[in-house]
Design a protein that fits this description.
The chain is an alpha+beta fold. It has a single domain (3-133), classed as Roll (ph1033 like fold). Helices cover 27% and strands 36% of the residues. The protein is built from 5 helices and 6 strands. A 6-stranded mixed β-sheet has the order 2-5-4-3-1-6. Strand 3 (46-51) and strand 4 (57-70) form a beta hairpin. The two termini are 15 Å apart.
Amino acid sequence: MKTWLVKSEPASFSWNQQVASDVEPWTGVRNHAAKANLRAMAVGDLALFYHSNLGREIVGIVEVVREAYPDPTAISGDWVAVDMKAVQPLPNAISLATLKADPLFTDFALVRQSRLSVMPVSTKHWQKIMMLAGISI
């Protein structure tokens, strides 16, 4: 199992909307690096749900329930989507400022490549985020 982080602007699609939808297609990704990350996802992989722009915090965990397929919102190009299912909210949301203040996250993709909307999360980063969030692993 791999772990990821996916970003969404809460004004467009929020954690609460993900929970209400249960399973939702993750569409609209128009960056080649993020597209490659979507293609690398497998059923059962987990992802951190990050509110970008407003909030700038990790608020929940989603699971990949359908692997990459053609993005139905793409007018042209070979863009892909995956389906995500809400797993659980984080008991304590983790802000971008908290991550930037911790030296462990110097090499974390969210800190280094803040514009990338889909990114891998290493085991060390996942474990520390779970600890900060108050989730026992």
